[in-house]
Amino acid sequence: MNNKAKYSQLIKSEAKRLGFLSCGISRAQFLEEEAPRLEKYLKNNMNGEMHYMENHFDKRLDPTKLVEGSKSVISLLLNYYPDETQIENTFKVSKYAYGTDYHFVIKDKLKELLNFITKEIGEVSGRAFTDSAPVLDKAWAAKSGLGWVGKHTLLLTQQTGSFYFVGELIIDLELEYDAPTTDHCGTCTKCIDACPTQAITEPYVVDGSKCISYFTIELKDKIPTEFKGQFDDWMFGCDICQDVCPWNRFSKAHSEPLFNPHPELLSMTKKDWEEITEDVFKDLFKKSPVKRTKFEGLKRNIEFLQKEKP
């Protein structure tokens, strides 16, 4: 076994020990296929108010411009599928936001993995990323064989569906590279048919500016009135396209204690949400991604849903 293969195996074993679902490796190079897609997405203003997506265009497509001297992109998946979900007929929070903010959880694990690499292999430079820098996470995960990008533009695997986070280490070490997998969406259009706001404008294209997650998290202004009655009680994020996906029948509960929800979160009724105070909000979402929308934002979302009633 050569060094590249040996080091790659070593990294994958440690990733598994750290609790990652899977680990794939690809060569750090320009993402040729993604360039025209990203250009079209931005040109058609599908990013809405998410202006940060217009920044660092070159770095988004080329990791060597982001991390000098980089040779490999190590992609990792971390499962967040809960073993219990919220009660029926309540205002809903996306499953990814039930527990501690994933940025902290994954970053810590990625840093541990990077420390392991430098300790076991030697002087290796690199950086850890998870959804907070100009990196096309799903494209890299697909390139390294961890799954395929589905018609809802989320990464899918035959074994465990799509309820997981994606993170990367971009490092200056040459490794053995994995090959992409094939697309298994077939003729299925369940995600497209189920989206209440028609945000999936065509297979493999999501107009971010029409997505319920965008309205309830990213948008800071008023939610446009033309979308009234279309939110299906989602007050933070949305899981509809994932919930209807046939591959998610294979989702298994995560084993990360930090992703467990606040004990009261799952049992809160619509009335509880309507009467939520700032203190309760702070307690419920102490380290949660829901903090991004702030108390006022969540109240705005709940009020928008209340007005949806006939």
List keywords for this structure.
310 residues, alpha+beta, NADH Oxidase, 2 domains, 4-stranded antiparallel beta sheet, two-stranded parallel ribbon, 12 helices, 13% strand
Q: The CATH topology of the largest domain, please?
A: NADH Oxidase
Assign a percent range to the helix content.
Answer: 25-40%
Terminal CA distance = 67 Å
The geometry reads as globular
Please give the domain count.
Answer: 2
Specify the CATH architecture of the largest domain.
3-Layer(aba) Sandwich
By CATH reckoning, the class of the largest domain would read Alpha Beta
Class of secondary structure makeup:
alpha+beta
What is the mean predicted local confidence, pLDDT? 94
Beta strand %: 5-15%
Oligomeric status of the shown chains? single chain
H-E string: HEHHHEEHEHEEEHEEHEHHHH
Widest β-sheet, arrangement of strands: 1-2-7-4
The radius of gyration is: 20 Å
Quick overview of this protein structure:
This protein is of the alpha+beta class.
Written description of the protein model:
There is one protein chain. The protein is an alpha+beta fold and 310 residues long. It has 2 domains: 3-83 and 94-171, NADH Oxidase, CATH 3.40.109; 190-252 and 261-306, no CATH class. Helix content is 33%, strand content 13%. The strands form 4 sheets. Strands 1-2-7-4 form a 4-stranded antiparallel beta sheet, with helices on both faces. A two-stranded parallel ribbon has the order 3-10. Strand 8 (200-202) and strand 9 (205-206) form a beta hairpin. The model has no long low-confidence stretch (mean pLDDT 94).
